């Protein structure tokens, strides 16, 4: 056996899957999917064949031509990888698996009507990154294997479906088109089939769908915004993301052709655990990015940048995650700089720099995860998810750009993308390509220190723009009780306030927090980046006046970027027993509103600090 990936049972001596044809019957009553998956392998195989699963009930595995059962077994579950599905093949290049998902699937969140915007219809959506596709369908769940797929989704007719794939048609179900197990009728009254096809090979973590009462708005020639069919949500999203086509064109100018045809956006209910997920053709977004001033488009810029770095070129395993996120953070900031100006991009860098330094503090007892290339044997990638691959990865690329000059680095990037598109690579492959195309770079920058060393290298560039220095200076002046004047903050948007709040000294007093909020109403901000940063500071100095707002926030959104710092601020450190009781009560009451991935993150915080 030769494992491909520390997070997968996939074996490099076995052929990769090239195509999966999925048939999915959605049962909202039981929060399960009755399904079949027809696998096509790169070449016929005899002997054992391994697939990843998690919380799946496997009913049968068949030869698709003869319908003859094939021997299989399912291992006891590994706490990180799930269960290995062991199939015995005999010169088979294809086989059919029938199975049912579990209500506890780690990729799926089933929402009751009260948990949605419209309050009238249920909703279900996927979040498969990093290793959760295996809880929706059996697969070689590693980014080292790229698949094409087709899917038939049988859903209630009052709902509709979207996927990170091309929509083929919406039609009535047809008898005998589905070989499934379960007590249901494929052609039952009030059911409809939505068909999709993904003809470009993608890693399994980019598989995505959502089913609910959906509406949409056109915002560009390649972009439609989807959300629950609630007018104010759709209208706000369309306004926020009206500049998307400009960003796509800028991305094409910088990085080459956009290969995915469509760049549609889906605004999910508030429980979505990430800011955005770069599913090709259909980016998933949290509603917290709709801020009313178009600054939420920066999240869209990040997900758009993934269309080149992450989706076209993918890290081979999560140990090289910076190849996805460091490159994408760099590309995002280049797009933002071109479309919104250098000031916006610089503020973004400044906020990221502060976040990177905070991650160094978070991992001070386990510096392995401050490396770009790290060892994740026996590690759940969700437990070590951080800003390090994003921000340290960005600074590595920025360091190279500053060394060779932007024009030369731009040419390098285009060549890199053209060379490795639709491939999965590791750090060593990138470094070899870098040295081959920028001769002598290893003598100018310590590439080993940057990729394999811990911490922040000494030659990383701290942001040094005038606006960045001014805001940090204003933060530092709070030590003397000075609050920024209204004329100093008159043109501030969320990023300026976020940078200011993130750099406030830990010694800030309760009275200063209250004075700051009474003047600028930060606890009431519609920008969650600002609100959560302010509430962190309030918790840190023990300002109980804002705990009602903390409760409202933790019960109102499921984005891990906000859950992690607020829950951590409440439970970290000695004493603080009232805060810890408060945090446990909040989680108990809000838990079912969080996606399973987010539930696990909060539970890990409690396990560490309680």
UniProtKB/TrEMBL annotation:
Q: Where is the active site?
A: 303 (proton acceptor), 390 (proton donor)
State where it is primarily located.
cytoplasm
Q: Which SUPFAM superfamilies match?
A: ARM repeat (SSF48371), Leukotriene A4 hydrolase N-terminal domain (SSF63737), Metalloproteases ('zincins'), catalytic domain (SSF55486)
| EC number, UniProt record | 3.3.2.10
Keywords annotated in UniProt: Cytoplasm, Hydrolase, Metal-binding, Metalloprotease, Protease, Zinc
Q: Name one GO cellular component term.
A: cytosol
Read off the PANTHER family from this record: LEUKOTRIENE A-4 HYDROLASE (PTHR45726)
From the Swiss-Prot or TrEMBL record, give the protein name.
Leucine aminopeptidase
């Amino acid at each position: 056996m030769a494992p491909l990936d520390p997070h997968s049972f996939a074996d490099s001596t076995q052929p990769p899957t090239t195509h999966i044809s999925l048939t999915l019957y959605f049962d909202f009553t039981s929060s399960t999917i009755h399904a079949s998956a027809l696998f096509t392998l790169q070449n016929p195989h005899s002997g054992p064949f391994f697939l990843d699963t998690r919380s799946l009930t496997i009913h049968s595995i068949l030869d698709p031509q003869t319908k003859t059962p094939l021997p299989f077994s399912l291992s006891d579950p590994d706490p990180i990888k799930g269960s290995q599905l062991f199939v015995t093949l005999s010169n088979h290049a294809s086989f059919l698996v029938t199975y049912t998902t579990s209500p506890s699937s780690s990729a799926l969140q089933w929402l009751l009507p009260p948990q949605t915007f419209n309050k009238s219809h249920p909703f279900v959506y996927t979040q498969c990154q990093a290793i959760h596709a295996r809880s929706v369908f059996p697969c070689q769940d590693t980014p080292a294997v790229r698949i094409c797929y087709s899917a038939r989704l049988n859903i209630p007719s009052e709902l509709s479906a979207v996927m990170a794939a091309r929509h083929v048609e919406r039609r009535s179900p047809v008898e005998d088109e589905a070989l499934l197990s379960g007590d249901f009728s494929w052609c039952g009254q009030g059911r409809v089939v939505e068909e999709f096809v993904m003809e470009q090979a993608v890693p399994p973590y980019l598989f995505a769908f959502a089913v609910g009462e959906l509406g949409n708005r056109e915002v560009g020639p390649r972009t439609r915004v989807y959300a629950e069919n609630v007018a104010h949500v759709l209208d706000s999203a369309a306004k926020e993301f009206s500049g998307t086509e400009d960003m796509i064109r800028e991305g094409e100018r910088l990085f080459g052709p956009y290969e995915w045809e469509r760049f549609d956006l889906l605004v999910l209910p508030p429980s979505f655990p990430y800011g955005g997920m770069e599913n090709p053709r259909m980016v998933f977004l949290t509603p917290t990015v709709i801020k009313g001033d178009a600054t939420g488009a920066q999240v869209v810029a990040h997900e758009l940048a993934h269309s080149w770095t992450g989706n076209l070129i993918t890290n081979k395993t999560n140990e090289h995650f910076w190849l996805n996120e460091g490159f994408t953070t760099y590309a995002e900031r280049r797009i933002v700089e071109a479309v919104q100006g250098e000031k916006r991009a610089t503020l973004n860098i400044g906020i990221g720099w502060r976040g990177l330094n905070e991650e160094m503090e978070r991992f001070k007892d386990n510096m392995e995860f401050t490396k770009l290339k790290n060892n994740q044997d026996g590690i759940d990638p969700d437990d070590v998810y951080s800003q390090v691959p994003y921000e340290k990865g960005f600074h590595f690329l920025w360091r190279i750009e500053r060394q060779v000059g932007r024009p030369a680095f731009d040419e390098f990037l285009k060549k890199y993308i053209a060379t490795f598109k639709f491939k999965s690579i590791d750090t060593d492959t990138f470094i070899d390509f870098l040295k081959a195309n920028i001769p002598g770079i290893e003598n100018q920058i310590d590439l080993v220190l940057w990729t394999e060393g811990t911490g922040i290298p000494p030659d990383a560039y701290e942001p040094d723009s005038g606006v960045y220095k001014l805001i940090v200076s204003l933060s530092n002046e709070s030590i003397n009780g000075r609050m920024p004047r209204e004329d100093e903050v008159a043109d501030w948007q969320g990023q300026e306030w976020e940078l200011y709040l993130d750099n406030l000294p830990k010694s800030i007093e309760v009275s200063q927090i209250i004075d700051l909020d009474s003047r600028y109403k930060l606890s009431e901000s519609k920008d969650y980046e600002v609100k959560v940063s302010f509430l962190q500071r309030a918790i840190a100095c023990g300002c109980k006046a804002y705990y009602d707002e903390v409760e409202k926030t933790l019960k109102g959104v499921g984005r891990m970027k906000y859950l992690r710092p607020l829950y951590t601020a409440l439970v970290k450190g000695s004493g603080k027993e009232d805060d810890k009781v408060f945090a446990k009560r909040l989680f108990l009451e809000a838990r079912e509103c969080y996606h399973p991935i987010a539930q696990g993150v909060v539970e890990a915080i409690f396990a560490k600090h309680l």
